[in-house]
């Protein structure tokens, strides 16, 4: 009998309306809290209520996608965090323009 290696991948489904704590976001992104706090300071993500202390921060579900995108930009394109922020802003603008173009065409 041959031994087979079965690769199992797990994932999570996060809705835009979901709220994630800093601890949960750290766990999902496999990052220390200091890295995410730096991403907040640089503008990658924003806490829902930034007036609270970071231990009580909550983030929208889209924050997970933004952090993952920033990490891929840093890893794959070797951009620094400021470059990743700029790229994310441009991606947001492209998305908004596409939505406007779709609305106008209807």
Proportion in helices: 55-70%
Shape: globular
**So how many helices?**
4
Mean pLDDT: 90
- Biggest β-sheet: strands ordered side by side in the sheet: 1-2
- Tell me the structural class: mainly alpha
How much strand content do the residues show? 5-15%
Q: And the CATH topology? A: Multidrug-efflux Transporter Regulator, Chain: A, Domain 2
Oligomer: single chain
Describe this structure in words.
The protein is mostly helical. It has one domain: Orthogonal Bundle (Multidrug-efflux Transporter Regulator, Chain: A, Domain 2). It has helices at residues 22-29, 33-42, 61-77, 81-105; strands at 19-21, 58-60. Strands 1-2 form a two-stranded antiparallel ribbon. Helix 3 (61-77) packs across helix 4 (81-105). The longest helix has 25 residues, at 81-105. The chain is globular, with a radius of gyration of 17 Å. The protein starts with 18 loop residues before the first strand and ends with a helix.
Summarize the structure.
The protein is mainly α and 106 residues long. The chain is built from 4 helices and 2 strands.
Give me the secondary-structure topology.
Elements: E1 19-21, H1 22-29, H2 33-42, E2 58-60, H3 61-77, H4 81-105
Antiparallel strand pairs: 1-2
Helix pairs in contact: 3-4
Task: State the main characteristics.
single chain, 106 residues, mainly alpha, Multidrug-efflux Transporter Regulator, Chain: A, Domain 2, 2 strands
